[in-house]
Write a structure and sequence with these properties.
This protein is α+β, with helices and mostly antiparallel strands and about 400 residues long. It has two domains: about 280 residues, ARM repeat domains (Serine Threonine Protein Phosphatase 5, Tetratricopeptide repeat, Alpha Horseshoe), CATH 1.25.40; about 110 residues, Sandwich (Immunoglobulin-like), CATH 2.60.40. The protein is built from 16 helices and eight strands. The protein starts with 9 loop residues before the first helix and ends with a strand. About 30% of the residues are buried.
Length: about 400
């Protein structure tokens, strides 16, 4: 599989250079009759590409994007209006609503991966004019999401940025509505965090609520991921939101189904942690059960093998009850201490006073995201957010 960094190749740089030169020439022609024309030099495409080629190969994806962005910016006029005129002129001429996801830059303009080299220009050099810059990012986001590029504006002046961005909640373009949710995520992966929204996410709650029933799954998924970010610092707020969003019984069946899916995805971290209030939002209350058995069937296993275990659960209720059953593997770390990790297992309904037995085989195959250390490990069970039992086994 080709490395992602190679998406920003010299072939793509040549396409960018072509459109950059074209738009610079257009501006020069427009300014020729002006009394005080903007100062800008025609682009020598060969020199531009050669200078980039000398350094590009040694750089990774994000470094390539920032490097190419800086090289483009050196060729742009200092005036923000003319700078943005050139950038807008470089965008693909095909209406973004007709662009396919796989569409890439060509003789008709730039889009797709090339936009990684344009967004940073606005994020880095447009902070003097929030209105112009955020409106340009709003236009650009359909060609390639600008979720990373709006964040410096929120960090510099959250109130000013959100006063502009909040108007996007009803924008006809779903890419823009999604940018409102995704660009403001407090802990967006691979992006700079937004400390103010980590500390206090309440400025976003009304906007997220307005987007929760968006007709596009792309937008609703972003709302769910945003709430999952918030849950890491404010679990009670997200639990309360889950209760609020799920209590409406007047919803159309399709909207209700979509909202339940959103809320469940938003609460995935809390559900995995067994957060009691969150589980209650889904009708999962404190279990009235007894764990009568937790048997590890393999007292010693090798890395790469399966750990086989079984549990027996007896209902202590005189009515059926919903159970969410997970298990925890207490991994031995390099320092010798045990660290539990939750694994999803199953959801069942246990009849009154019923007893059921469940079996599981947990894989200890080697994966890149986890390093195994030999020695004593443990296993326990989590039912409706409460932990039961504990047994040990040896990993060799």
């Amino acid at each position: 599989m080709d490395a992602f960094k190679n998406k920003l190749s010299m072939d793509l740089v040549k396409v960018i250079a072509f459109h950059l030169a074209k738009q610079i020439d257009i501006l020069i022609q427009q300014q020729a009759s002006k009394t005080n024309p903007v100062l800008i030099t025609p682009l020598d495409q060969d020199t531009f590409c050669f200078d980039i080629s000398k350094k590009l190969e040694a750089l990774e994806l994000k470094q390539r994007a920032e490097f190419i962005a800086d090289e483009i910016h050196k060729k742009l006029p200092s005036d923000l209006t003319f700078k943005y005129q050139i950038i807008k002129g470089m965008l693909h001429s095909k209406p973004h609503s007709n662009l396919k996801v796989s569409q890439q830059s060509d003789e008709n303009g730039i889009c797709g991966w090339a936009m990684m080299c344009i967004g940073p220009i606005v994020a880095k050099h447009g902070l003097t004019d929030f209105d112009k810059s955020l409106n340009l990012l709003k236009e650009m986001t359909a060609y390639f999401s600008c979720e990373f590029d709006v964040r410096p504006f929120i960090i510099k002046d959250q109130d000013k940025a959100l006063s502009i961005m909040s108007e996007w909640v009803n924008n006809e373009d779903y890419h823009v509505r999604r940018l409102l949710s995704e660009g403001t995520r407090p802990r967006l992966p691979w992006a700079m965090q937004i400390p103010s929204l980590i500390n206090d996410p309440t400025p976003m709650m009304a906007l997220l609520s307005a987007l929760k029933d968006d007709k596009e799954e792309y937008v609703r998924r972003s709302v769910a991921n945003h709430l999952n970010d918030i849950a890491k610092d404010h679990p009670e707020l997200v639990a309360d939101t889950a209760h609020e969003w799920l209590k409406d019984n007047t919803l159309d069946s399709k909207i209700k189904k979509n909202r339940e899916k959103l809320v469940r995805h938003a609460c995935r971290t809390l559900i995995k942690q067994g957060h009691v209030k969150t589980l209650a939002a889904f009708g999962i209350n404190k279990a009235k059960i007894e764990l009568t058995q937790l048997n590890v069937l393999d007292e010693k296993i090798n890395v790469g093998d399966y750990l086989n275990f079984e549990i027996a659960v007896k209902s202590l209720s005189n009515a059926p009850q919903k159970l969410v059953i997970d298990y925890l593997i207490h991994h031995k770390k390099a320092n010798g201490k045990l660290s539990p990790k939750v694994f999803k297992w199953k959801s069942v309904t246990l009849a009154d006073e019923e007893c059921q037995t469940f079996n599981k085989a947990h894989s200890f195959k080697i994966i890149t995201t986890r390093k195994y250390h030999p020695g004593r490990h443990g296993i326990s069970v989590r039912i409706n957010g409460e932990d039961y039992g504990y047994e040990e086994f040896e990993l060799v």
